[in-house]
Specification:
The chain is 35% helix and 23% strand. By secondary structure, it is an alpha+beta fold. Strand 1 and strand 2 form a beta hairpin. The longest helix has 22 residues.
Length: 416
């Protein structure tokens, strides 16, 4: 089916201005953002988004995880809504577009429909999921995971940040505990627009990524227990060095990922040493191994090998070792009908496009467990993300938003 109104586009200037205004909340130190979930900056960003949604004539609902749902009604009160969303929270050194582009492009779809007097059969709901990043409270995609029934509400509320503050207490503190049961909403479809967070689209000179699949992942949190001792006066053969064990595990993770090529990645992005002193061997090291693959067999095989080899490494050094899976989802195949709607929209709008597999996890990965879902991606400069230097162009942003606009209109059903 052809995308309706091939000449219709979103307001690119308004979308870009909204992105820049949101970026002023929770500024980073190098041009990006530090708007971590459930901080005062997150609360401020939520309030701005609420004002914009209400100005666009939408009504806001909030569930017990703090996820925001802004609804534009359809003409059929019995029709399930088409959802569009992503997240407003950022990494500690995050960019201005990761997640935010998807939420504000959803808002721009509604604004453009209002401008053009477009009515749809199905309601359209713009969503801001809580704690997609998982930077402050692991795991990532926490609210959408509870929504999909993969994680429990009590589990989510009990998650702690590095300072020992719980998710539940911080959600209450910033005033965004809603009254809706998490997961009670039913969806006709879900679209998520996001920057690629990789270099493929830019390298291939394509404006649109038609996302067909998403990699599965495991986050494995290792806690290694050694013995604190003076780095200068403790003989090498008498050390119980948790830091050395971590180093050998990191090297092993690299080897396991390389052995699983193609289509597999693995590494360590977070580590905490205790007592973290220059001249004290660590008595405790906590770090997270992140492994991903679109192939379920490879993904699970990597996990099994990493855990087995880590146990051997630690045993040889006399270091205690425990492992907790703090994040996981299986590889995802997105809904073929919605994928086709995205591809059709890109073709009818004349935008260059290609199929792509998402290397990062997204809320759409959990939503796909309970509703038809898909994603759209735009390029980002150098593939750089989770970095304050993250950058996209206004043209890239608006091209993907145009595709989102038309795919949503097709799916929601324009009423003449």
């Amino acid at each position: 089916m052809a995308a309706p109104g091939e000449n219709m586009r979103v307001n690119a200037d308004r979308l870009w201005d909204s992105l820049m205004e949101m970026a002023r909340i929770g500024p980073g130190v190098a041009g990006g953002n530090n708007r971590q979930t459930l901080t005062d900056a997150d609360a401020e960003g939520r309030s701005l988004f609420r004002r914009w949604c209400e100005a666009a004539g939408m009504t806001l609902g909030v569930d017990r995880m703090g996820t925001m749902f802004a609804t534009r009604p359809g003409t059929d009160p019995d029709a399930l809504p088409v959802y569009v969303g992503s997240h407003l929270d950022t990494q500690p050194t995050g960019g201005k577009y990761d997640g935010v582009l998807g939420v504000l492009s959803g808002l721009e779809v509604i604004r453009s429909m209002n401008d053009l007097g477009i009515r749809t059969k199905h309601p359209i709901v713009v969503t801001n999921w809580t704690n997609e990043e998982g930077a402050r409270f692991a795991p990532a995609m926490l609210a959408s995971g509870v929504f999909a029934g993969a994680l429990g509400l009590d589990y989510a509320y009990a998650r702690t940040d590095p300072d020992g503050k719980t998710f539940g207490d911080e959600l209450k503190r910033i005033g965004w505990v809603g009254d809706e049961e998490v997961g009670a909403r039913k969806m006709h479809a879900y679209f998520e627009y996001h920057i690629e967070q990789g270099p493929i689209l830019e390298a291939e000179n394509r404006q649109i990524g038609v996302v067909t699949h998403c990699q599965g992942l495991w986050w494995l949190e290792f806690t290694l227990t050694g013995r604190e001792a003076h780095t200068g006066s403790t003989p090498m053969n008498l050390r119980v060095n948790a830091g050395l064990a971590m180093a050998r595990i990191m090297e092993m993770v690299q080897a396991v990922a390389m052995e699983a090529q193609p289509g597999a990645v693995g590494g360590v992005g977070q580590a905490f040493f205790s007592p973290n002193s220059r001249n004290v061997l660590p008595g405790k090291v906590v770090f997270t191994v992140d492994i991903r693959s679109p192939d379920q067999t490879k993904l699970d095989g990597m996990r099994a090998k990493i855990e087995a080899e880590a146990a051997k490494i630690c045993a040889a050094l006399g270091v205690g070792c425990s492992v907790e899976a703090v994040g996981h989802f299986d590889p995802v195949t997105f809904d073929p009908t919605l994928v086709s709607a995205v591809r059709n929209a890109a073709e009818h709008l004349g935008y260059s496009h290609m199929n792509i597999i998402s290397g990062a996890g997204h809320d759409a990965c959990w939503v796909a467990k309970v509703a038809p879902a898909t994603m759209i991606m735009c390029p980002c400069v150098g593939g750089l993300s989770h970095n304050e230097a993250e950058e996209i162009s206004k043209d890239w942003a608006s091209a993907g938003a145009d595709v989102l606009f038309h795919a949503v209109m097709e799916t929601a059903g324009i009423v003449e």
